[in-house]
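Dear U.,

For the methods section draft, I wanted the exact inputs and outputs in one place so we can describe them consistently. I've listed the two proteins in the order they'll appear in the manuscript figures. Please don't edit the C-alpha cell lines directly; just add comments below if something needs changing.

First protein:
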Amino acid sequence: MTSETTQILTRVQVEQKIRRIAFEIYENNFEESEVILAGVSGEGHVLAQRLADVLRQISPLNVKVMKITLDKTTLQQPPVQLDAEETVFTQKSIIVIDDVLNSGRTLAFALQPFLNVPVTKLKVAVIVDRDHKRYPIAADYIGYKLSTTLTEHVLVVLSDEERIGVYMR
C-alpha cells in the first residue's frame, strides 16, 4: 500500500464482519436446507468462500459456493457466466456476494441470471457499502457502511493473506 492509502478495517475487523454476516445469513435461512453463496469473481468470490467456511462451522446448512463472472469495466455487459447449472440454484436461497457496493451496477448485472429462475430467496451481501447508488440495488447483509467522496477508491483485500483488510485511497 502507498503512503496515501488509509487502512479502514484490519484483518481482525474484517474477520469479525464476515462472522457477523454469516450469523445473519444463518438467522435468515435457518429453515432452509441449503444456501447458495454466489460470489462475483475476484474478492467477491473470496468473500463467498470465507462466508461459506464460517457458515459450515456455525450451522447445519448445506452451503454451496458458485462464481459469477462478468466484466466490471464494460458499459454493455455480455451474458454473465456462472460456474454452475441452473438446476443447482433452482428453488434455493441465494445470496449474491461482492466486496464493495458502490453504484450498484456490478450487482445489478450479477443478479440477472437468477431473475429467470424460481428461487426461494435472493439477497445481496457486501463487506463495504459506499452508498453511491446509481442503480436500485441495496445490500441485505453489510459488513461496514462507509461514507466516501466519489473520487476516493475503496479496496478490499481478502485473497492476499499478508494484507487482508479494507483500504481507502
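Second protein (the one for the lower panel):
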Amino acid sequence: MLRVEYAYWLMALFLFYTALRNLRERQFWRAAFWALLGLLFGGGDAVLAQQAAGNALPAQLAGAAVIGLALLAPRLRRHPHGDGADTARRQQSAARLGHKLFMPALMIPLVTLLVALFGTYLSVAGHALFAPAQMTLTGLTLACVLALLAAAWVTRTPVHQGLAQGSRLLDAIGWAALLPLLLAALGQVFTQSGVGAEIAALATAVLPSGNAFACLLVFALGMVLFTVIMGNAFAAFPVMMAGIGLPLLVHQYGANPAILGSMGMLCGYCGTLLTPMAADYNLVPAALLELRNPYGVIRAQWWSAVGIFITTFLCMWLLVFR
C-alpha cells in the first residue's frame, strides 16, 4: 500500500541529494541547510513514534533542528539558476520540443485527479494500492514520479539530469521554499491557540445584531486579511470558519456552508495575490525572473485581486442565504 510516508522519504532523499551536490561545490552552508531539512522530513515518523511512547527527546531534537534552519537561512547566498550558455541551450531545446514540454507538467494534476477519484478501486491481490485517508497526497507523489520519468523520455535525457535541475532550482529559491510549510504550521498554531474563539467573541460584541450583510463582509475581509498575514488561504480558513463562519453565518443566519466555504476560500485567494508572505507565488517568480523589484508580481496583480474580491463577495451575498 502506498502511504504518505513514502512521499516524505522521497523528499528527504532529494534533499540529501541537493545537500551532496552543494557539498561537492564547497557550498557548506547550503549543504548543511538541506541536509538538516532532509533529516526532518525523513525522521518525522520516528519522532512521532517516540513521542507517543513518552520519549520527548526526539521532539526536542526536531525543534532544535528547526532553530538550526533559522540560523542557517541568512547564510544562504542567492544561487543563480543557470548561466548564459545554459539558458541558450534550454531555449534551443524548448524550440525543438515545442508543446511536448507541457506533457510532463500536465501529468501531475491529471494523475492526481485520477487517483483521487478511482484510487479506492485499485488493489493488488486483495490489498488496497492507496491508503484511503491519504489518497490525494499519495496520488500527487505518484504523479510527480511519473512526470519526472515522462520528462526524461520527452527530452531524451537521463533521469538524474532532471534531479540535477530540480536541485539547482531549489538552490535558486533558497530558504523561501520552506515558507509554505511554515505558514501552514502557523495556521495550525492560530487554530490550536484559540484565535478563532477570540474572533467569534469579538465579532459578536462588535457586529450589529441581525445584520447578516455586515457579518458576511467581515468574514470575507477577514479571509483576505488572515491570508495576507499567513500567506495561505488554507491556514486562514479554519480560523475564520471557527470564528465567524460556523457560529454566526451558518448557525445564526442560516448560510449555506458549501457556498460559504467555497467562495470564502476564493476571497482568501485574493489575499494570496497581495502578500509577500505567499513567497512561492509572489517572491520566488520575481527572483527566478530576476525582476528589479522583488514585489513586481504583486504590483502587477493587485488590481486583479480587488476586482475578483468584489465580484466574489457580491455573488456570495446573492447566493449564500438562499
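Candidate sentences for the figure legend, describing the second protein: The longest helix spans residues 296-319. The mean pLDDT is 83.

Thanks,
Y.
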